[in-house]
Amino acid sequence: GAVVSQHPSRVICKSGTSVKIECRSLDFQATTMFWYRQFPKKSLMLMATSNEGSKATYEQGVEKDKFLINHASLTLSTLTVTSAHPEDSSFYICSARDPGVDYEQYFGPGTRLTVT
Amino acid sequence: GQNIDQPTEMTATEGAIVQINCTYQTSGFNGLFWYQQHAGEAPTFLSYNVLDGLEEKGRFSSFLSRSKGYSYLLLKELQMKDSASYFCAVRDRPNRDDKIIFGKGTRLHILP
């Protein structure tokens, strides 16, 4: 099946700093990627839909100035958590849709962010 | 509004059968997924139903009734490795914006 990678897999940062997470589709071109956040033992909450070449669409309650999304190419989307705080500590997962497959989204392995 | 309900936790015995139910109310519907997630890992795709009926794939089967807003995931011949969280997720397509909305997940515990 299709492969989606994320980097880094784990990151620890200090409060007030910014962290960038990359999501790459390795063997297909993804016009649309999705970013999710998951707290321990909770569901995946969709944060935003990232569209190549255009602005991301954020879900209600997600601060677009805090979670910056850039989808500059058909294989790469980045999520930058700006001025991170301990409450931003979470598991961030991206997924990508292969335009050649009608319904399936392929999930990356996730990034564990810890803000100290 | 969007609402997806599934039990929080279930327990079953190795070798047995378990059914995880899901009900949904969404503004749009373009298919229902079931995902499995082990702790600390990303979700993995199990099944996708867009038409009514039963889809069987090995030990796993998924059923959909669109008129009832209901689905279930059936796991047969349970193995210890099936201990995981299972998410029902709906492909919601309001205003041509296609995205997947996840339920809260069901933590399945398998006992030896």
Notable traits:
heterodimer; A: 116 residues; mainly beta; 7-stranded mixed β-sheet; 4-stranded antiparallel β-sheet; globular; B: 112 residues; 6-stranded mixed β-sheet; 5-stranded antiparallel β-sheet
Describe this entry's structure for a reader:
The complex is a heterodimer of chains A (116) and B (112). With 116 residues, chain A is mainly beta. Chain A has strands at residues 4-7, 10-13, 19-25, 32-38, 44-51, 57-58, 67-73, 76-81, 90-97, 105-107, 111-115. In chain A, strand 5 (44-51) and strand 6 form a beta hairpin. The termini of chain A are far apart. Chain B has 112 residues and is mostly beta strands. Chain B is built from no helices and eleven strands. In chain B, the strands form two sheets. In chain B, strands 2, 4, 5, 9, 10 and 11 form a six-stranded mixed β-sheet that branches. A five-stranded antiparallel β-sheet of chain B has the order 1-3-8-7-6, with no helix packed on it. The interface between A and B is medium-sized, with 22 and 23 residues.
Topology (elements, then pairings):
The complex is a heterodimer of chains A (116) and B (112).
Chain A: E1 4-7, E2 10-13, E3 19-25, E4 32-38, E5 44-51, E6 57-58, E7 67-73, E8 76-81, E9 90-97, E10 105-107, E11 111-115
Parallel strand pairs in A: 2-11
Antiparallel strand pairs in A: 1-3, 3-8, 4-5, 4-9, 5-6, 7-8, 9-10, 9-11
Chain B: E1 3-5, E2 9-13, E3 18-25, E4 32-37, E5 44-49, E6 53-57, E7 60-65, E8 70-75, E9 84-92, E10 99-102, E11 106-111
Parallel strand pairs in B: 2-11
Antiparallel strand pairs in B: 1-3, 3-8, 4-5, 4-9, 6-7, 7-8, 9-10, 9-11
